Every structure is written in structure tokens, then in C-alpha cells.
Amino acid sequence: MGSHLLLVAPPPAHMIRKDPVLEAYQQEITYVFHALRWLGARPQEIEDLAQEVFIALRRSWSHYDSSRPLRPYLFGVAFRVVSMQRRKRRHEVAFARLEVRDWGPGPDDELQAKQARAMVLRALEKIPLRRRAILVMHDLEQVPVRQVATTLSLPLFTVYSRLRKARAELQAALRRITKDGSGS
Amino acid sequence: MKTPPPLPPDLEALLAPHRTVLPLAPSVEARAIARAAAVAESPQQGVARASSPPRWVFAAAAGLVLALGAGAYAARTWIAAPPPPVPARVAPIAAPRPSEPHLPIVAAPVETEAPEPIAPLAPPHVRRGVGKASAPAVATNAELQLLRTARQDVTRGDFAGALAVIAEHVRSFRNGALVEEREALRVKSLAGLGRQEEAQRAAAEFHRRFPHSVFLSTFERMKETDR
User: For residues A59 and A21, what is the distance between their CA atoms, to the nearest angstrom?
Assistant: First the structure.
């Protein structure tokens, strides 16, 4: 009886744009996927995690200071969602090998860029999430350290020390990957 | 320490190209937004936690409900308790009047509480909606949008994506107006992914819940195609 309802015209776009959180999410949806990917979410989980980010964003929206940029705040939400998911998953599987799937259109001539991204992602996989998040946020997203500390609710000094350690771990991991690649 | 040391040049060279945010595939983006819109319209999840009352309010309310329930139960038990056994009332023996016919002396019937009538059970697919009096009878735009996305995924062959949307529909519109369509799409998606056993189980469940559905003929055709 209801199947014919699916054939009617789609609802007007303005009907799903009224909500400010939804509007912000719509504007930054690509960034949410980007952040989740760099935080080490598995490709097959990213859509579900993005949905979790949206739900968490709705709940915490009243804490967001709209005079500040949204992206670092979103990154913090994404970090918490991924951390929670890791805790849930800890007893299920050890740490699955990262699959690299491109969400974008990706023409073939970008193969090299994709390979480079895959290598960085594999190297980042070796860094524990709490340090990886800081490295991605500061060195990749170029968020100032002070803001990283505020977003992740960490002391400034902790952010510095974790960043230093994460960089060293990333370099070591990259060296290992390059060595393995040239060796095989 | 004001700023951290700059990134070593080799790391900088490696990370720099990845600072751009890559665009999403349109279908992925549309699906993600449709799922979020469904949550935004869903009354259960649409409330911000910050504006909700603190937990102790819920705990107090739950305690009050429990106390009231226990009190009501105790009162009902006390009221419904059978009275102490009373000897059957016996009609006083009196000499029959000459004008009245001779009546046998009988014990007056003791009034007993009539058993409460038991309401007939609704069929399973109707009973599922019980308790959600406010469940929408007509599909909302969000529900419609969500299932349309799932249907498009099935048409495109993205069965895993369709299952994700279906799961979202379950979360947001468990007893929505389009449950029948959702479950039909689930069967198709499972079959499309080659998860035959699960598809068969889902089809059997569908048959049980919607014995007169028009989708059943589709499943039959799917089975014949498989053979």
C-alpha cells in the first residue's frame, strides 16, 4: 500500500535544511568523512561513524561557540566517536589491516597520489589514536596547538609531548614501510 | 614553549598533498545527508541532551512510578482479596403463607466476581504498533526520503549501502508507515549480497508479518530466477 508513496516527487530541499545542526553537517559532510578517514576509521564503517558524529554533534551543539571555526570542533567530535568505537571493538578484532578506498571520483591518473595517501594512512595506523589525533589535527589540518588542546580537553604540555612522539613514530613507520616496499 | 618545532621537511612534503578535503561520491553524500535528516526529524533522537533534564530527575521519576505501581498493586490485591468465608445465607424458615405457593428453602447464591473479559489478541503485525499511539500513520518526508535512498541503492546494486540505510530506518522509524517496504528492500538487499540464508529468513519473517503483501510475488520471482 505504501510502495506507491516512494514514487512521488522528492520532498523539497528546504524541508531538510531547517535544522542548524543539519545545515552545518551538510556543509561539512566531506570534512567529516575526511577527518574520520585520517583518524583511522575503516572504509566500511565511515558512513555509520559519520552518522554517529552527526548525532553527537546534535547533542553537543549547545556547547559549540559559533564564533570559532567549526572544523576543529567537528574533528574533536569525530575523535571522540572513533575512540568510543575503538573501545567497543577492542575485544572483537585486533587491528584490521587498513583498506584504502577512495570516496571521491578519483581518475586513474591520480594513482600515485592514492598510493602516497595509502602509505601515509598505513604509517598513521601504527600510531595510537590519542597521539595520531593530535598529529593529524596539527600537522595535517594545521590547527594551532592551543586549539588542539582546547578541542581535545588536554593540557597544552601534553599536546606538545604527544605531538613530538607522534612525529617520531610516523617517521619510523614510514621508514619501515619504505624499507619493506623496497625489500619485497 | 610557544609553538612546536616545524615539521621535518620530509614529513611536510609527504603530508602537504593530503591537506585538501577530497569530494565525496554524490551517492555517498546524498545517503549520509538523508540519514542525518532522518535523525533530525525523528522525535526520539532529535532532542539535544544539553537541554534535557539531569539524570536524577529520571531516576526520581522512575522511583516514583515504581512506588506508585507497588502501591496500586498492593491496593488492588487488598481490594480483590476474597472476604472471609461466610456461611451461605439461608433464607429464614417461615411458615408459608396460604396465599403463596410453597417455595423450597434454598441457599441464596453468593455473588462472585465475574472474570474480566480477555481482549482478543491482534495479529502480530498490528500488535507491534501497540504502545506507540503517536506512531505516524502517514509516512513523513524523512521516512520517505530514507526509503527512497535505500531503494535507489538497491536499484544501483549498492546492497550494502541499502542495508545501512535500512538499519537507519529501523532506528528512526521502527514502526513507521513504510515498514513493509523497508522489509521488502531488506530481503532484496540480502539476496543481492548473496547472503541467501539471511535473505530466506527475512523473507519468511516478511511472509509471516505481511501475508497479503504484493511484494511476496516479487520474492517468488526472485526464487525462480535463482533456480
Answer: 10
Measured at the CA of B223, the angle between CA B218 and CA B226, to 5 degrees, comes to 125
Q: Which pLDDT tens digit goes with each residue over A109-152?
A: 466 777 788 888 889 999 999 999 999 999 988 899 999 999 89
A31–B8 CB contact, under 8 Å: no
**Cα of B197 to nearest chain A Cα, Å:** 22
Residue with cell 520474492: B219
> What backbone torsions phi and psi does residue B90 show, to the nearest 5 degrees?
-110, 130
Neighboring chain A residues of B28 at a CB cutoff of 8 Å: 33, 47, 103
Is the reported ipTM for this assembly greater than 0.90?
no
pLDDT one-digit tens code per residue, B124-182: 444 444 444 444 446 677 888 888 888 888 888 888 888 988 988 888 888 888 888 89
**Contact state of A139 with B36 under an 8 Å Cβ cutoff:** no
- Distance between CA B57 and CA A73 in Å, rounded? 30
| Three cell numbers written together for B183 | 522489509
Among B41, B50, B180, the residue with its CB nearest the CB of A2 is: B180
| Beta carbons of B14 and A58 less than 8 Å apart | no
Nearest to A2 among B17, B31, B177 (CB): B177
